[in-house]
């Protein structure tokens, strides 16, 4: 008779956001907000182009990737030809359409989403290496950013049974 596998509940989640497209940033925000609402200790770490999501100048001006996005679909579910994504105005139009659909679902803008996550107990961090590379300082980031930390600092937060790291 096989031994019953012991299950451990998720107690802590660390989400890493490295991309700055509208769909990638919102994936991280939705997952973080859901975790906070479930009472799970939640930490968000933004690195490389994901820093756009927490940088004051760019956070509410994210775009949808239309070129090189194999999952992009046209209305009716037909594949979106990558060539079209490079035409003038197409990315802006697709981004506007996505934002309109998100508004219908009452999804808040990025800055408000970060505030909701922080208010629920979530912690938001920027990557030191990426911030240094892009010449960004703490004052460039939204006020919900708790600190600029190294990867080593990030790993130190990952202790404990029931901890998961998710790269979005």
Give a written overview of the molecule:
- With 168 residues, this protein is an alpha/beta fold.
- It has two domains: 12-60 and 109-167, Hypothetical Protein Ychn, Chain: A (3-Layer(aba) Sandwich), CATH 3.40.1260.10; 67-108, no CATH class.
- It contains six helices and five strands, in the order βαβαααβαβαβ.
- Strands 4-3-2-1-5 form a five-stranded parallel sheet.
- Helix 1 (22-37) runs parallel beside helix 4.
- The radius of gyration is 18 Å and the shape is globular.
- It starts with 11 loop residues before the first strand and ends with a strand.
Q: Could you give a quick summary of the protein structure above?
A:
This protein is of the alpha/beta class and 168 residues long.
Unreliable stretches (pLDDT < 50, length at least 5) are none
Strand order of the largest sheet: 4-3-2-1-5
Helix content: 25-40%
Taking all residues together, what is the mean pLDDT? 88
What's the end-to-end separation, in Å? 39 Å
List keywords for this structure.
single chain; alpha/beta; 5 strands; 2 domains
Topology:
Elements: E1 12-17, H1 22-37, E2 41-46, H2 82-85, H3 90-104, H4 110-119, E3 123-127, H5 128-133, E4 145-149, H6 151-156, E5 163-167
Parallel strand pairs: 1-2, 1-5, 2-3, 3-4
């Amino acid at each position: 008779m096989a031994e019953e596998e012991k299950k451990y509940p998720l107690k802590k989640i660390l989400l890493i956001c490295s991309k700055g497209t509208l769909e990638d940033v919102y994936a991280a925000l939705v997952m973080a907000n859901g975790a906070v609402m479930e009472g799970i200790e939640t930490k968000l770490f933004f690195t490389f182009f994901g820093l756009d999501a927490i940088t004051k100048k760019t956070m509410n001006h994210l775009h949808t990737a239309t070129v090189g996005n194999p999952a992009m679909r046209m209305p009716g579910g037909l594949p979106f030809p990558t060539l079209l994504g490079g035409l003038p105005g197409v990315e802006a139009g697709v981004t506007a359409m996505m934002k309109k659909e998100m508004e219908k679902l009452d999804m808040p803008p990025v800055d408000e989403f970060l505030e909701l996550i922080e208010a629920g107990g979530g912690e938001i961090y920027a990557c030191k290496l990426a911030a240094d590379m892009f010449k960004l300082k703490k004052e460039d980031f939204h006020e919900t950013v708790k600190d600029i930390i190294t990867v080593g600092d990030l790993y130190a937060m990952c202790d404990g049974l029931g901890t998961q790291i998710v790269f979005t």
